[in-house]
Every structure is written in structure tokens, then in C-alpha cells.
Amino acid sequence: MSHYEDQYLDLMRRIWTEGTVQEDRTGVGTRSLFGATMRFSLANNAIPLLTTKRIFWKTAAREMLWFLTGDTNIRNLLKQKVRIWTDWPLDRYRRETGEQISQEDFEQRIVDDINFAEKWGDLGPVYGAQWVNWPKYEDAGQGLYRRAQKGINQIELLVQSLKNNPGSRRHIFEGWNVAELDQMALPPCHKTYQFHVADGVLSGLLFQRSCDLGLGFGFNVFAASMLIRMLADQCGYQPGELIWQGGDVHLYLNHGELVEEQLSRTPSGAPKLHLLRKPDSIFGYEIEDFEVLDYHPQAHISAPVAV
Ligand SMILES: Nc1nc(=O)c2c([nH]1)NC[C@@H]1CN(c3ccc(C(=O)N[C@@H](CCC(=O)O)C(=O)O)cc3)CN21
Ligand SMILES: O=c1ccn([C@H]2C[C@H](O)[C@@H](COP(=O)(O)O)O2)c(=O)[nH]1
């Protein structure tokens, strides 16, 4: 019997042995392959957590809940000790001020000093901003337009369409706001989400244009699955599948040790995600509402993140 994680390990092996070497934006270099699909069942609380290394799923869960608030400042992540987004604001701070501040000191300042956080901790209109507040413009007369106070809440609209028009082929939300890409610290990687309801079962498809298979992927599949589970609960459906599609799927050349180690391990077990509470809305979830059981992964493998 194959394990759901075999799809991941097979792709990793293929990229490491056959992928084309690319010079990438970060300067680290990758081996990459263009176009890949994986399918994961979410039925009976199944959750596609990687078992060949520990995934800190609470970090990914906190990040997903943070997206849903529409926040784009790393301050509220840091308050929860989530440090995965620090590198980009830190890089900008060092570049623009010339001050060689340590990561710890920078993070502490973001938490302690709200003015500092506002100036240096924002990632621009990334994920959350587009998901729940996609900019809308209104007629201001005399041929002028102004930005409306409230943008489009794609997630709210999605919940309504899933509930009221399940057969629709337009259950989509999108992070790729072309007009604002240049203001973002990084343009969205997990950029398009589509959903499908059939016989009371909700499935989701994620298109990820760029995937760091060694580091980001484990977070991305967990978070996407968690989102499908929340939407299913809110709309009264059973969870079906996560279909993950990658565009440029790559392994950074400095992830060799991680790759060799992970490929030497065998996946095992069937972790479960439980939602302990059903809030009144998709925006009401808290980290305490999520519990993972039967997760017995092999040891964590650390690897550097390419900035
Ligand atoms: N090169 C790169 N890879 C990514 O996966 C990535 C980016 N850049 N930039 C934007 C976000 C930030 N993400 C990140 C950043 C860091 C980790 C990371 O360091 N993960 C560690 C430990 C996580 C923890 O502390 O809980 C890991 O081993 O998974 C994961 C995802 C995902 N994204
Ligand atoms: O959720 C995420 C966010 C980012 N990544 C990875 C994919 C790439 O390695 C970098 C982004 O660099 P680009 O030059 O913008 O493609 O971050 C991820 O895997 N998952």
C-alpha cells in the first residue's frame, strides 16, 4: 500500500536527479521541474502532514489564521513566536539603514515598538490583504476615482457561493493582484484556490506558481488542507480532497543534506486533524480550535531559507 507522502518523495527524488539547474532570484540556485500535481484525501480527518520530518504545523496554522485577518504586518506573527516571515523585512531594514541589527533584536523591536513595526514590519499588500480586502475603486465625480474604504472580501463571497450555489465552477479566490505585485515583499506563491462541491463533499485545488519543496511545501499543504476543513465545516459539507498543483517546483542547491536525509526515510502513519469548535464564521477560528492526533514524525531537519 502506498502512503500519501510517497507522491512528495517521488517528486523530490525526480527533481534532485533530473531537475534542471536554474539561477534563481535569491542567488542560491535550484534544481527545478515545471508542472506537478499531487492529490491528498482529507476524508475522516486525514491531514497530509509530512511524516519523514516533523512539520511545525502550528506555525503554518497561525500563519493561515493571520492571512484570514487580512493583516500584512509581521508583528502579530512575532507576538505568537512565528518567525518565518522576518527575513524579508529584516533584509530591507538592513539594506535601507545600513544597520547590522541581529534578527532577534529586530524582532524584539517590532514587538515592542508599534511605530517601528508600522514602518518596517509590513510586507505590503500580500495574501491576507488581497483575500479579504481586494481593493475596489469608486467614482469620485469629475472623472476621478478613489479607493473605497472597504475592499472585496473574497473569502466571505466564497463561503456564500459554496453555501448558496454549490454547483458553481467559479468558487475561486486569488492572491495575484497584478496591479499591486510591485508593492509586495514577495508576490504570492500559493496564488489561486478553487473549490468544488459534489454530493455534499468539498474539495479544494491549490495552484502554487513557485514551490520550495524542501521548506515551504510542508506548510503549504497543511494550511490549504486546514482551510478546506474550515470551509467544509462552515458550509455543512464533508471534506474531500486537496489537489495540489505546482508551477516551478524546486529544491534549493543548499538543501542537499535535507534531501538526502529525507529520501532515506520511509513515511508512516496517518495523522488526523480535528476541529474542536465551529465558530459563527470562517473568520472566528483560533489556534486552540485545532488539534492534530496520531502524528509521530521522524526528526525535524533544518535547512536554510533562501531570501
Ligand atoms: N525560499 C523560501 N521558501 C519558502 O518556503 C518561503 C519563502 N522563501 N518566502 C516566503 C515564505 C516564508 N515561508 C517559510 C519561511 C521559513 C520556513 C522555515 O524556516 N521553516 C522551518 C522551521 C519553521 C518553524 O520555526 O516552525 C522548517 O523546518 O520548516 C518555512 C516557511 C514560506 N515561504
Ligand atoms: O508559501 C510559500 C511562499 C514561498 N515559497 C517559496 C517558493 C520560492 O522558493 C520562494 C519565492 O520566490 P519567488 O522568486 O517569488 O518565486 O518562496 C513557497 O514555497 N511557499
From TrEMBL:
Active site feature: 189
Binding site for (6R)-5,10-methylene-5,6,7,8-tetrahydrofolate: 212, 306
Extent of the signal sequence: none
Enzyme class: transferase
Residues annotated as binding dUMP: 25, 169-170, 209-212, 220, 250-252
Pathway listed: Pyrimidine metabolism; dTTP biosynthesis
CDD domains, A to Z: TS_Pyrimidine_HMase (cd00351)
GO biological process, one term: methylation
Catalytic activity of the protein: dUMP + (6R)-5,10-methylene-5,6,7,8-tetrahydrofolate = 7,8-dihydrofolate + dTMP
Catalytic activity, EC: 2.1.1.45
Pfam families membership: Thymidylat_synt (PF00303)
Thymidylate synthase/dCMP hydroxymethylase domain boundaries: 7-307
Alphabetized InterPro entries for the sequence: Thymidate_synth/dCMP_Mease, Thymidate_synth/dCMP_Mease_dom, Thymidate_synth/dCMP_Mease_sf, Thymidylate_synthase, Thymidylate_synthase_AS
Function: Catalyzes the reductive methylation of 2'-deoxyuridine-5'-monophosphate (dUMP) to 2'-deoxythymidine-5'-monophosphate (dTMP) while utilizing 5,10-methylenetetrahydrofolate (mTHF) as the methyl donor and reductant in the reaction, yielding dihydrofolate (DHF) as a by-product. This enzymatic reaction provides an intracellular de novo source of dTMP, an essential precursor for DNA biosynthesis.
Sequence similarity: Belongs to the thymidylate synthase family. Bacterial-type ThyA subfamily.
Assembly notes: Homodimer.
HAMAP family (alphabetical): Thymidy_synth_bact (MF_00008)
Entry protein name: Thymidylate synthase
Organism: Sphingorhabdus buctiana
